[in-house]
């Protein structure tokens, strides 16, 4: 349908039909929907008038080819102008085949596989009738107390940007109108949600515009450059104004500066939440503020439905604001081909063929192996030898709660537990299992069994972690250690003096005191998804050499938070020179650095970095720098290494990070093999926001680093020079 036809359609619409289009309701409100749709927020006090329910332009949480076709059919029967319903859902890390959680996918540093997982998720969702996914979530995160760090790819703006692009490409493909096995993406949560004070979900966010632009907005811009069709506004304030009522954020920045012309949808209830935020007196004012600020669709509250008509008819807001929102919604429906194909990709036969098919599960297993991070391996006790008897002990030993948050349509029963994964590797006589305790409950009998199992074993594999409801939305924790009963289990079992491995199932960097100082090896498995148990067993027994690297720092203690790699130096840095000095920036009882820094992860082999050279000691706007480094696999097994490139601007108009990730390469090396890795560094990559928010680079000295993580790096220097007047 071309633009004129859409404008014609808009002209034919009544005021109520337009108001319907800007309202989104959850599945239970729709005819033909089963009531187990995805409910992800408060359902209380929603008073949608009956006529508005029929007119609501989009639904969230519906899925299944048969069900969505029925909903669409019923909807079109009631729709005077034949405007199809838009079906949106949270397909965050898989539809039914569940991939590792995004914080795990980020740890893979594998953009191709990340894109592939989004493509598969889109395919499974599209044939099941979904049109739009509320992903990627691109919030930058520095506070592991926040439950939603699990949905992010981490603490670095550049890394989050390239993952955002990969996910949007995977979800959308290049032709949404005709490729009905893709879905439109909705980048979220715009903006700054990851900086909630105290890591407490929905809490206040306070930061300068420069911080926002330099760290938190980069990945949004990247997702929009990749073509994300929608943006979702966040719950939090941005400089004192809630995002969903923030005109600067949505109109000045998103529409005017970034030229975004897609659909903006509020997060669940965020329009009505302008009232408790204290910037709207009532629902009418909330509706007026949100629409004026630029929210096109109100998700799951009733301010638009109940008040836009009177606001427009009394000229408190101009009908043009409503028309522009409805126009964008109709254009999105047209971009998805819904006017010609209202059922779009929904196809029971295709659904049966491809959802959870072996090929998709294999990709989930491969991505899970690449997302696991080997944090410690004292004495090289990993990989395990199948002749040694394994005592698998812990609340996650045979637990299918490993899909993680936002895996709605994934079935835990489909998940391969760690026990099931190991069973495929060793004879039954070589595997004994016991829970030892619950996630956060103790049991004397279980503990006694665990001790007995441990005594029978040659090696103990502890399976520990957080239940999935200890992570994700509204899953903030003030104490980020493992539950106390699990630490007690570790304490008791390590007394036996046997080689002990801890496998962790969790959605955040944990305070690992009581684990890393007790056991020999630690494998961070996150929530590894449907094929989690198989993937972890592949690693434990050496069929796969772990290559994951964390993308969010693990603190020594929650007291350090926020601790992240790209911090500023301060005026009193604690360092080697003044290591004994008291009056420097430090704690009396804890190191400043992270226990495990951004980019950290071990391998079963070892890699040597040498021949680190620059093409010149200067860089200019038209003469990029070529950076080379030789990597040698000095161990006796093949493996992958993520070679990381960082830069430091030694002097800026404003303070500059000690390190900034500017590139990375994941390479595979056979034992003894060496490869020269080359990076290009341009003047553009050295630009930053100055005090007046202008964005450009300064002449001056820089350091450049390469290494296996953000701490253990080699350093060289160069200078940026500009011809006069640049
Ligand atoms: C939730 C989440 C958001 C999700 C939406 C719809 O409250 O904040 O990420 O996409 O509601 O489920």
UniProtKB/TrEMBL annotation:
<dbReference type="Pfam" id="PF00933">
    <property type="entry name" value="Glyco_hydro_3"/>
</dbReference>
<dbReference type="InterPro" id="IPR036881">
    <property type="entry name" value="Glyco_hydro_3_C_sf"/>
</dbReference>
<dbReference type="Pfam" id="PF01915">
    <property type="entry name" value="Glyco_hydro_3_C"/>
</dbReference>
<keyword id="KW-0119">Carbohydrate metabolism</keyword>
<feature type="domain" description="Fibronectin type III-like">
    <location>
        <begin position="641"/>
        <end position="710"/>
    </location>
</feature>
<dbReference type="InterPro" id="IPR036962">
    <property type="entry name" value="Glyco_hydro_3_N_sf"/>
</dbReference>
<dbReference type="InterPro" id="IPR019800">
    <property type="entry name" value="Glyco_hydro_3_AS"/>
</dbReference>
<dbReference type="InterPro" id="IPR001764">
    <property type="entry name" value="Glyco_hydro_3_N"/>
</dbReference>
<dbReference type="Pfam" id="PF14310">
    <property type="entry name" value="Fn3-like"/>
</dbReference>
<comment type="similarity">
    <text>Belongs to the glycosyl hydrolase 3 family.</text>
</comment>
<dbReference type="GO" id="GO:0005975">
    <property type="term" value="P:carbohydrate metabolic process"/>
</dbReference>
<keyword id="KW-0326">Glycosidase</keyword>
<dbReference type="InterPro" id="IPR026891">
    <property type="entry name" value="Fn3-like"/>
</dbReference>
<dbReference type="InterPro" id="IPR002772">
    <property type="entry name" value="Glyco_hydro_3_C"/>
</dbReference>
<dbReference type="InterPro" id="IPR050288">
    <property type="entry name" value="Cellulose_deg_GH3"/>
</dbReference>
<dbReference type="InterPro" id="IPR017853">
    <property type="entry name" value="GH"/>
</dbReference>
<protein>
    <submittedName>
        <fullName>Glycosyl hydrolase family 3</fullName>
    </submittedName>
</protein>
<dbReference type="InterPro" id="IPR013783">
    <property type="entry name" value="Ig-like_fold"/>
</dbReference>
<dbReference type="GO" id="GO:0008422">
    <property type="term" value="F:beta-glucosidase activity"/>
</dbReference>
<keyword id="KW-0378">Hydrolase</keyword>
